[in-house]
Design brief:
The chain is an alpha/beta fold. It has two domains: 283 residues, pyruvate-formate lyase- activating enzyme; 77 residues, Arc Repressor Mutant, subunit A. The strands form three sheets. The protein has a nine-stranded mixed sheet.
């Protein structure tokens, strides 16, 4: 059968190639530098802004197995002693932070345990770690304590411990309900472990249970994706987060692509992934869910919140603990050392484990909050005029007009509103709002 040239051209344009497409901060990480690390000291020694919220991120970089698509800093070869040394290091890091004027005396508004696999830790380790964290920075008034889990690491006693330490949102990294898909993508768990973990989590009565899915995994098919949607609806979790598969450069899949000289990743193209998420969102809406961002559906928007996301996207201070973690302190972005050895050596020497940093100016902070809030699908213009003195409609007139012409968004009644097609490709739209010096080439 002959290939239609137009179809072939479109396929090449939308094919999944290596690179990071998901935008999590601004300016991009590539502009952060070692020579700006001094800015972190200045920020930590400043007084907090009035009414600024404070959050804590704790990175647990240990996993049973590294997924083929994983691009986070994780370790699968550490023994119990090494894990404990790392956890002790994060406590020492927080103690040093808590003495700085920016942090001293403040209470945590939100806490997030990410990974890696936080649920890789034992119940005893979780209790000891969080008792020490709470003794340094109180979180008795925290509105949210979020905790990521790999289903295969959860047993009844582990889940009881997770509930006991104060977790309000439990997030299960399901990704897919098919054992073959899970296996070929390098996931450690299998579908029966998902169902057991979910039932046990329900029994603990967490405030919110979220499940993560990924559209477009290796060997994903139309039939499999529809089964994922159907199974999710049977479970009816409080929230569902759906990511579109991307292939960053430091993943196992990319290494195989590079070794074989392939430019296109062996996963669904972007048009297919966006259609699959669109279908999932429509199915979830049909049973009562509300679409809350380009990635999330919630069963009860009055009850179910993502405090970590919303506060971070509104300029909150965030202290990141552990290897490779990111922080945002008084307008300064920074990242810790990305390997565990230099991280621990720095902590042992009584130094901040800083790798790189970037001090933002007010315009960059405005852009950061605007593009991140665009992911919610609805941005209030008055927020930016009140906080930054900027008329967004005027400031970004050309960009908004172009996207309106493409029928991806509209500006009405004081809001920028993305339609469903715009929301599903939002990360690809945000580069238009970057300052010229921060723009980089994008494939899709």
């Amino acid at each position: 059968m002959e290939t239609n040239p137009a179809e072939a051209s479109q396929s090449a344009k939308t094919s999944t190639r290596a690179g990071n497409y998901f935008i999590s901060n601004y300016p991009p990480f590539s502009f952060w530098s070692e020579d700006q690390r001094v800015e972190v000291e200045i920020a930590l020694n400043s007084e907090p802004a009035p009414d600024a919220k404070l959050g804590l991120y704790h990175h647990i970089p240990f996993c049973r197995k590294r997924c083929h698509f994983c691009y986070f800093r994780v370790y699968t070869d550490k023994n119990a002693r090494q894990i404990q040394e790392y956890l002790d290091g994060t406590i020492a890091e927080l103690k040093a932070m808590a003495e700085r004027p920016l942090i001293r005396g403040r209470k945590l508004h939100f806490v997030y345990f990410g990974g890696g696999t936080p649920s890789y830790l034992s119940a005893k380790q979780l209790h000891e770690l969080t008792d020490q964290l709470k003794a340094i920075l109180a979180w008795d008034e925290a509105e949210e304590v979020a905790f990521e889990c790999e289903p295969g690491t959860l047993n009844p006693s582990k889940l009881t411990a997770v509930k006991d330490i104060g977790v309000t949102r439990l997030s299960l990294g399901v990704e897919n309900f098919d054992d073959h898909i899970l296996q070929i993508n390098g996931r450690a768990h299998r579908a029966p472990e998902v169902y057991r973990a979910y039932e046990r989590a329900l029994a603990e009565n967490f405030d919110q249970i979220n499940i993560d899915l990924i559209a477009g995994m290796l060997e994903e098919t139309e039939e499999n994706w529809q089964r994922n949607i159907e199974q999710t609806i049977k479970m009816m979790p409080d929230s569902v987060t759906i990511y579109q598969m991307e292939i960053p450069y430091n993943t196992g899949i990319y290494k195989e692509m590079k070794a074989s000289g392939k430019l296109v990743a062996p996963v669904a193209d972007w048009e297919t992934k966006r259609r699959w998420v669109k279908e999932a969102f429509a199915a979830l809406e049909s049973v009562g869910y509300t679409i809350a961002s380009g990635y999330t559906a919630v069963k009860n928007p009055e009850k179910t919140k993502f405090i970590y996301r919303d506060e971070l996207w509104s300029g909150a201070d965030l202290i990141g603990l552990g290897v490779a973690s990111f922080s945002h302190a008084a307008g300064v972005h920074y990242q810790n050392f990305t390997e565990i050895e230099p991280y621990q050596e720095s902590i042992a020497a009584g130094e901040l484990p800083l790798k790189r940093a970037f001090r933002t100016n007010e315009e960059e902070r405005m852009i950061r909050e605007f593009i991140l809030q665009m992911k919610l699908g609805k941005v209030e213009l008055g927020y930016f005029s009140d906080k930054f003195g900027v008329d967004i409609h005027e400031h970004f007139a050309d960009q908004l007009s172009n996207l309106a012409d493409e029928e991806l968004l509209s500006v009405e009644d004081g809001f920028v509103i993305l339609n469903r097609d715009g929301l599903l490709c939002v990360d690809n739209l945000l580069h238009d709002f970057f300052l010229q010096e921060h723009r980089t080439s994008q494939i899709v």
